[in-house]
Amino acid sequence: xxxxxxxxxxxxxxxxxxxxxxxxxxxxxxxxxxxxxxxxxxxxxxxxxxxxxxxxxxxxxxxxxxxxxxxxxxxxxxxxxxxxxxxxxxxxxxxxxxxxxxxxxxxxxxx
Length: 111
What we know:
Blueprint: E1 2-3, E2 9-12, E3 15-28, E4 35-38, E5 42-43, E6 48-55, E7 72-77, E8 80-86, H1 102-110
Antiparallel strand pairs: 1-5, 2-3, 2-7, 3-4, 3-6, 7-8
């Protein structure tokens, strides 16, 4: 079972980042895409859902419909694939996006 607060590793292209499931928005039918349930408490194996996720560090991703290679991702936990999905929408500035890495600090100093 997956519920809000779950923190697996997100694999998107070559990036591997811890990511928190902030909110389970709605459970959907994977074949038709129709909404089955709003705000589910948890997801079971075989369920499809729309979920808000917050990455632990900034990551370069895009909307799947605009740029498919950067819009696909896999969710893994304990060496097992938990979910495979696409990015439908994103918020450019979310929690954790204000952290600056060491390499970014060095790049700022050289300018």
